[in-house]
Design brief:
mainly alpha; 79% helix; 0% strand; 169 residues
């Protein structure tokens, strides 16, 4: 069944609203810092599968305006994951995935330092470097679990992003 433009916009609007709600609820919990953006990223999958990367990235951009953390950490990941899975070497693929995730996390903290000044750094260092290392390890573990869950959903629902054929005019 061919979807009309208004149906596509309505689905993207509903999934965008649900993404923002997930991100707001997740901000109330400590573990929600990583879990909520990952759950919100899962909501891109139906849009990516049914309408393609243009709509998925538009939804990502819209939610990103509303939820800044989603921009840097996980919102783009389902679209990026499709591209990364074309890399043959499993080790290279995982190194790139973790490098992207950790770079995004460092960028978030650098933005916090720039916006809030040394107060954020003082609070982070008050717990000690062991706590910082444990938080980074927990973040990487949650990212790995997110990737595994995304892979399971992709296999279960037989989601394969098909290459779009270019139309000749």
């Amino acid at each position: 069944m061919r979807k009309t433009e208004s149906q596509k916009i309505a689905l993207c609007g509903m999934l965008g609203a649900l993404s923002v709600v997930l991100l707001l609820i997740g901000s109330a919990l400590q573990i929600g810092t990583y879990a909520a953006p990952m759950l919100a990223a899962f909501l891109l999958i139906p849009v990516l599968e049914d309408y393609g990367p243009r709509y998925a990235l538009t939804l990502y951009a819209t939610v990103s305006i509303l939820a800044f953390f989603y921009v840097l950490v996980m919102g783009y990941y389902p679209v990026l994951r499709v591209k990364l899975n074309t890399i043959k070497s499993r080790w290279v693929r995982w190194i790139i995935k973790f490098a992207v995730f950790n770079a995004a996390t460092v960028l978030v903290y650098l933005l916090l330092f720039a916006l809030l000044g040394p107060a954020v750094l003082d609070e982070l260092l008050a717990d000690g470097t062991a706590m910082l290392a444990a938080l980074l390890a927990a973040g990487n573990l949650s990212f790995w679990l997110c990737d595994r869950a995304l892979a399971a959903l992709t296999r279960y629902y037989h989601l394969v992003v098909k290459p779009r054929l270019k139309k000749k005019f």
